[in-house]
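Let us practice reading a record.
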Amino acid sequence: TVIVNYKHNLFANIVVMGYCIINYFILYSYEEKDSPTTIGSQMKFINTAFICFSFLTGVFSIIIFFGNISFQYHSIWGTTDSIGTFDGRLWGINGNPNTCGIMSVISIAFSVMELFLKHYKKLFFKIFFIINIVIQYVVLGLTKSRGAQLALIAFVGISLMMGLYLKFIKTKKIKKFAVVLSILIGILGGAAAYGTVEISSPIINFVVIKLNQAHTPTEPPIEEVQRIDLEKSDTSNGRFLLWKAGFEAFEHYPVLGTSHKNVYDFTLDSYSGTLALNGLKGGGMHNVLIQTLVANGLVGLLIFLSIICCFGRLIMKYIKNIPTRENRVAMVFIISILCMFFAHNMVENMIVYSIGWNQTLFWSYLGFCMYFITKDMGLKDKPNFLSRFAERVTAKKNVQPSE
């Protein structure tokens, strides 16, 4: 795709290729020879670091909200970033309500995971994780980010379904109904998670208004609204319009696509509508599958879907034969977190074409997932390129010279 579209944004697209290499071959890499304890320590470090960071940002964001503090500043990238509360939504200190929202959901997921895996034995950490969950729920409710709420539903629903399925499947009386019962409870759990956020948001807003009658929402800069705020246009938050424009661009570049950095310009060129495509410049198609279709054409989408299917097949096969209880608990949360990221990327575009904490967490957790699958299932052909390459290099070095 980059070669075909070399006349447009060649250097920027090469940089995107570098991002993809980092995601696929470095962040995703894992070493099968590591012990489960080592992998557990790595997950513990990532989870704890992210929880602590999000806890601090969450506390500061709530203080900013209650203090009615809002301002803009010019970043080193030449953009105008915003901190505070705008148009009734908490942007926090992340400069974006949707980023603030998904950070809270990930922090909730990691906190729940740590509580169940019991990496920390002291009561202090358990209390800290519970307090963090409460704070992140408050932040999530104030951001009003529907994409983040969808991610929360996916995490709660999938974790409940998997956890209960693994428990019910061993009970003779309800073994036949294990799948149906797990799905029903998972759906109810996801709905309950969504309901708590929807209920808490107006309550918090009411309290703030009563405590601070001078609280008046500030309008964000117009370029920021166009970049990320899709919350007001329709039930899809403006995404249906973006997706329709994306399919129009796909019709003009069906085989190899436009390349990632040309999605914005080429989509505008082929767009037949009259309404503004809010969010296109900063967030692309707000759907990782449609973004792949437009950026890399039908060929790219088929490759991407085949990768998803291969991972899905391995994961489904492994779920039925997880050897130990510790691995079962860990895999329930690892798979639920991966599904959470993927659900969020049905309304956002964060895990493939760029680099940041979203991508780092997703590809690292996919590596953790494949570590357990590769080790426990005894796969001869390792799913990871770097693992195979490293093994071949090591094997050549260890060859003894013939006498």
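A brief commentary: The CA atoms of residues 257 and 297 lie 4 Å apart.
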